[in-house]
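Continuing the series of single-chain predictions for the mutant panel. This is the parent chain; the variants come on the following pages.
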Amino acid sequence: MKIINSILQGAAEIECSPHRDDRGWFTRYYCEDELKEISGDLKIVQINSSFTKLAGTVRGLHFQKAPYEEDKIVRCIAGKIYDVILDNRENSDTYGQWHAVTLDSEKMNMVFIPKGFAHGFQTLSSNCQVLYLHTQKHHPEAECGFYYKSPNLDIPWPLEVKDLSERDKKLKLFTKN
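Parent structure:
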């Protein structure tokens, strides 16, 4: 695994190092020892996956409110996505800043998202599947997020937005406190 620190405090891109042979490949998605430098004592308690049919679909920007904040590792396991993380930690030097990484199932890269960040993505291909490793169980009462087109963020989504859930259409605009 190769860890590439993000411009946002505590976040990182993780590149997997697949072992290839005539049969295909094998790679590691998670290793406590290798990720300790960015994650501390990360305890994965839930693994989720999403499937998105249409290229151009946006999901997010989502997070869980305190006391249910979570660290996440996100990987696209089928297709390609434009993955966006937003530092929502008011005491952080990078508060209100966002960073995007293209996660590609063929590249096998991932993103580590610390507690206090919002996360969203746009599918760059059809039939995308995303895998999420969480350090906190899902708590519906703690669900929160920001509208993907918040003017204060000015995120240049690469494709025309084709699909957005009713929930995501109602998310609040991001404003710095």
